[in-house]
Design goal:
Layout: H1 5-13, H2 16-28, H3 33-53, H4 59-82, E1 90-95, H5 103-114, E2 118-121, H6 128-138, E3 142-146, H7 154-165, E4 173-177, H8 183-189, E5 193-194, H9 198-209
Parallel strand pairs: 1-2, 1-3, 3-4, 4-5
Helix pairs in contact: 1-2, 1-3, 1-4, 2-4, 3-4, 4-5, 5-9, 6-7
Length: about 210
C-alpha cells in the first residue's frame, strides 16, 4: 500500500508535481477521495498554517503549499462531487468594489480550499450586488471580503447592508480581512468575524459553522 504520508509532506513542502502524482496513484489504487482530503490534505494545510503562525513559514511558503494542495484537489474534487460528498461549506470571496489588490484574497481562497471549503472566487473590484448574487445563485454560506485600501473599507459595510436589503443576511456569515481591517471595524459594520491572516481565516470560517 502506498505511504500517503508522502502526500502530506508534498503539500507541506509545496511540491505540486509530487502531490499530484501521489494523488493520481492513490486514486488509481482505490483510495477513498474523501479520506485523501480529510486525512492527508487538510492536516497538511493545518500544519502549514501552524508553521506560518510560528514564523517558520512566510507568505511565499504558504502560496507554494496552497498551489500543491490545489494540484491534488483538481483530481479529487470531481470524484467527491460525483459521489455526493459535499464540501464543508461554500464561501464567496472577493476584494471589495474599488480595490484591485488580490494577493491576500488569493491566499485566503487557497487556504480555505485547502481546509475543505468550496470557494467561489469573485475576483477583485466586487460590487455588493455580485456578493448578493453569489449568495442567491450559488448558495454561498459564507461571504469573505478583503480590502487593502482604507478608502475601500466602506464597501464592506455597503455590502452587508445590501445583503440585508436583499433578505439574505441571516443565511450567511460575513468575514472580513485586509491590512487596514480590525476586529473593532468588523464589530462596527456588523460582520461576523475578522482575521488578520489566511490561516486565521480558515479557523474563523470553521467557527462560523459551529452551532450557536
Amino acid at each position: 500500500m502506498q505511504d500517503l504520508k508522502a502526500l502530506s509532506e508534498a503539500v507541506i513542502r509545496g511540491d505540486a508535481k509530487a502531490a499530484r502524482e501521489i494523488t493520481e496513484q492513490a486514486l488509481a489504487s482505490g483510495v477513498d477521495p474523501l479520506a485523501l482530503v480529510n486525512e492527508h490534505m487538510v492536516p497538511a494545510m493545518s500544519e502549514v498554517g501552524r508553521r506560518y503562525e510560528c514564523n517558520e513559514y512566510f507568505v511565499p511558503e504558504l502560496l507554494i503549499s496552497a498551489r500543491a494542495m490545489k494540484a491534488s484537489l483538481e483530481l479529487v474534487r470531481p470524484l467527491l462531487t460525483a459521489s455526493g460528498h459535499p464540501p464543508m461549506a461554500r464561501v464567496a470571496i472577493g476584494t471589495v468594489k474599488g480595490d484591485l489588490h488580490d494577493i491576500g484574497k488569493n491566499l485566503v481562497a487557497a487556504m480555505l480550499e485547502g481546509g475543505g471549503f468550496e470557494v467561489i472566487d469573485l475576483g477583485v473590484n466586487v460590487s455588493p450586488d455580485q456578493f448578493v448574487a453569489a449568495v442567491r445563485e450559488k448558495n454561498a454560506q459564507i461571504v469573505a471580503m478583503s480590502a487593502l485600501l482604507t478608502t475601500t473599507m466602506p464597501s464592506m459595510k455597503t455590502t452587508i447592508e445590501a445583503l440585508r436589503t436583499a433578505g439574505v443576511r441571516q443565511q450567511v456569515k460575513v468575514i472580513i480581512g485586509g491590512a487596514p481591517i480590525s476586529q473593532r471595524y468588523a464589530d462596527e459594520i456588523g460582520a461576523d468575524g475578522f482575521s488578520e491572516n489566511a490561516p486565521g481565516a480558515v479557523t474563523l470560517a470553521r467557527q462560523c459553522l459551529a452551532p450557536a
